[in-house]
Structure formats: structure tokens, C-alpha cells
Amino acid sequence: AKRKGRNTWQWYHGAGVKSTLDSVFLRNELQQALEKDEFTLHYQPVVDAVSGKIRSVEALVRWNHPERGMISPGDFIPLAEKTGQIVPLGQWVLRQACREIARLNASSERMLPVAVNISSLQFLRENFLTAVDDALEASGLPARFLELEVTESVLLDGAEPVIALMDTLSSRGIRVAIDDFGTGFSSLSYLRDLPTHKVKLDRSFINKTLTDRRTAAIVQGVITMAHHMDMVVVAEGIETEDEQNDLVRRNCDLLQGYRFSKPVPLEVLAELPDRLPGI
Ligand code: C2E
Ligand code: CA
Ligand code: CA
Ligand code: CA
């Protein structure tokens, strides 16, 4: 989102009159991209910390722009959240991920669950549950193979409706994980009240655990606490063997990061071995 040129990408982050123009421009571009099928999903494996076995994959959206090439979600998701277009885009991602992983599972011996990132705006929409049901039904993916990743920001307007929705989802067999745990503003008591089975520790913690004692204490604390609440912990953004070893030593359950695999297209995912011991 920093490119200059005729369309001045950088305007989007600016304020004032220009940013109004920009959101109109971006709204159109995103709308067209959805219609023209310019979005695509990559999948990143999540591995068992001890065995390196692939346990699930996370779907991550990319915008395959005809002129600008692959645009990463960091450059358009925040904007799509501003314009509200994250809702139709998120719906597309949900349906596409279910469809692709159902197809992959049908053609292989390996049965992989897929995790889909859900924006708070999308999660808190009245018809979200219907959208999830539709995606599962249209794809044939069993509910237990779908996991939704939400961040602590879903709690900003109060916890009760969120807890109710998570209860309904989990009664259908759909699991909900807390993404980017520890980066938001919510209190620890939320974790106690949320019917969730998994927390994902943000990369900003992981890449500091080896050098910062206080960060290490938070990481260890979250892992221990989550285990006492019968939750599993995923460490995101593992890049080095030292980071891997450190998290294994701290009893982290699952690992995700470039050390094992970058997010890859479905065809590449299909060819990955069952175990990714780390490069
Ligand atoms: P996230 O959900 O925390 O996803 C993890 C991000 O970390 C991904 O970036 C992934 O490619 C990156 N990553 C994984 N391992 C490593 C590593 O070892 N090192 C480094 N440096 N990075 C690593 P990506 O794909 O660019 O996605 C960025 C964010 O965009 C995601 O963060 C998520 O918040 C959002 N996003 C992506 N796809 C979707 C989507 O379909 N819907 C919604 N609502 N948000 C999405
Ligand atoms: Ca995520
Ligand atoms: Ca995350
Ligand atoms: Ca993140």
C-alpha cells in the first residue's frame, strides 16, 4: 500500500479529502476484483511441535492483481474492513477454503482441517452462522474440519453475543481459535469465558522470546495457562531452529512458520510430505 503512480496507492492511508476519494476508488477496485475472480488462497501448514506432522492448514487470501501482481492481505484487508467489503470478501474466502480443502481431502489419504480468518465485522454479522452453514453444505466439508480464527477485537462490543455464537458454532462441531493472542486489549478473564480450544501466539512474541526475558515469561505463561484450561497453543512465525527448539521446550503444542512452510497454493500443498521437520 505504498506504491506511487497514477492510482497512488499511498493515498489510502492518508487523511482528508483524498482518502474519501480513495475509498471510493478502492471500493470499486475490490468490487471488480471479486467479480473478476482476482483473489486466490494460499495455505500454510500448522505442524505438531514434536513430530513435525501437518495437523491443519490456514487459508490466507492473496489478491492477484492484473497490473500490480500478488498483493498481500496486509495491503488490502485493513482497507476492506474500512469499506465493509471484508464481509463479501470474507464470505468468498470461507466458501473457497471449504471447497478447496474438501476437494483436497477427497483426493488424498491425509484429512486436513482448514482454518479461516474471520474479521470481527464478518463474525458479528447477524447472518454469519447461515453463511458458515452454506459454505459447509456447498462444499461437503464436515464441520469438524473447519476452524475459524478470530482476534480479541470481536470482544470490543461485549462478550455475551460472542460467547453465544461460539457456543452455537462448537455445538455444530466448528472450532474457534483466538488469533494474535496477546496483541489486543482484552483481559485474561475473557479467555476464561470464551468457549475456545486454541490460542495462537503472535509472531511479535515468538521472535523476541530468545532475547527478551519478559517476552519469554509471557509466552511461557500463556502456554501454561492455556494448558490448564485444556486449550492448545500455536506459535506463529517460527523461522529458525532455535525458535522451534525454544517453543518445544516450553511445551507449545503446534508450530507455524516459514521454517516449516510458507503459505503455498493448493497444488503445492497437495505435494507436501506428511511431516515437515523444519528446513
Ligand atoms: P495472520 O492471520 O496472523 O496470518 C499469519 C501471517 O504471518 C500471514 O501473513 C503469514 O504468511 C505470515 N507468516 C507465517 N509464518 C511466518 C514466518 O515464519 N515469518 C513471517 N515473517 N511471517 C510469517 P499474510 O498471509 O500476509 O496475512 C497477513 C494477515 O492478513 C493475517 O495475519 C490475517 O490477519 C489477514 N488475513 C489473511 N487472509 C485473511 C482472510 O481471508 N480474511 C481475513 N479477515 N484476514 C485475513
Ligand atoms: Ca490467522
Ligand atoms: Ca495470527
Ligand atoms: Ca498476525
From TrEMBL:
Coiled-coil segments on the chain, per record: none
**Covered residues of the complete protein?**
452 to 730 of 732
This protein's name:
cyclic-guanylate-specific phosphodiesterase
Domain of life from the UniProt record: Bacteria
What range(s) does the EAL domain occupy?
A: 23-277
Name the source organism: Marinobacter persicus
